[in-house]
Design goal:
Number of strands: 8
Distance between the termini: 27 Å
Order of helices and strands: EHEHEHEHEHHEHEHEHHHH
Structural class: alpha/beta
Shape: globular
Radius of gyration: 18 Å
Number of helices: 12
């Protein structure tokens, strides 16, 4: 798994879960979306999740999602894998979004555990199988019990791995023993769904990360993933430590969509930091905490030229 060439992976190896830029009045800003997608790929991403959690998928209309899939696919072409966030807690709705994503030119889909309903594991299995059967798009399963309310058990994950279209797992459960079993017993490409766990997960055999912080530090994450893939864990560990403050800044104080947009705006990458309710911009003390973590790093908007914090 770790010796698979990064560009040959069906979902990529450095995958940024893209924010969705909005205009000042809250409409989707497709021009800013295209520009951000191009920048991320130029800086080393070989996969982009469009309309995932960080993309504020829960406040996007279905037509907006489909248009986002299309715009990003047209922008990056075959330079990166476009992974459509299609999962909902309504199976037939997820099936419809899978078909829309395929029609719009996405290369794959990210499907989250059905949230709020709290189905049994039999229901989880049936949900993923139904969505996987709805299109020809390969599926990355997203296990994030902190948001979905339930985990995908290892036994269920092993059964899902038998489906011909289910090819990857984005693990945000932070259960090393569970992910080890999946790595040992399946051919799934496993991705860290927690930016700070990229190094240990890849040391065990994961192929990469689906990251929010990579918006801000794309090139550093590219270097980390490449070093770990090559087995150069001394270099990977050094980059891991360098990335620690930026990961804290983006992931620990406020929702990732809010913090990523704030930093990208301060760096001059996005024209604004607008989010849709129920998300709101940060309180002054929250933004201060984000900037305090970035202070003195190459990603500090106060010390870097506008738009140049691309380390």
């Amino acid at each position: 798994m770790v010796d698979t060439p990064a560009r040959a992976l069906p979902f990529g190896s450095l995958v940024t879960a893209m924010v969705t830029p909005f205009t000042a009045d809250g409409a989707v800003d497709f021009d800013a979306t295209a520009a951000l997608a191009a920048r991320l790929v130029d800086d080393g991403c070989d996969g982009l999740v469009v309309s995932g959690t960080t993309g504020e998928t829960s406040t996007l209309e279905d037509s907006e999602k489909e248009d986002l899939y299309r715009v990003v696919a047209e922008t990056v072409g075959d330079r990166a894998r476009v992974i459509a966030g299609t999962g909902t807690n309504h199976t037939s709705h997820s099936v419809e979004m899978a078909r829309r994503a395929e029609r719009a030119g996405a290369h794959a889909q990210l499907v989250v555990t059905p949230y709020y309903n709290k189905p049994t594991q039999a229901g989880v299995l049936a949900h993923f199988e139904a969505v996987a059967a709805a299109s020809d798009l390969p599926v990355m399963v997203y296990d994030i019990p902190g948001r979905s309310g339930i985990p995908i058990t290892t036994e269920t994950m092993l059964r899902l791995a038998e489906h011909p279209r289910i090819g990857a797992l984005k693990d945000a459960k932070a259960d090393f023993a569970a992910v080890t079993r999946v790595l040992a017993a399946t051919d799934l490409d496993v991705y860290s769904g927690d930016d700070g766990l990229t190094l240990p997960w890849m040391a065990a055999g994961a192929v990469g990360v689906v990251s929010v912080t990579a918006h801000v530090a794309t090139r550093a994450f590219r270097a980390l993933v490449d070093a770990a893939t090559a087995g150069d864990f001394a270099k990977a560990r050094r980059i891991h430590f360098e990335l620690d403050p930026v990961i804290r800044a983006v992931m620990t104080h406020i929702p990732g969509a809010v913090s990523a947009k704030q930093v990208l705006h301060l760096q001059g990458v996005l024209p604004n930091a607008v989010v849709r309710l129920p998300l709101v911009g940060p309180e002054p003390h929250e933004l201060e905490a984000v900037l305090a973590d970035l202070a003195g790093t190459v990603w500090d908007p106060a010390s870097s030229p506008v738009g140049e914090s691309r380390a």
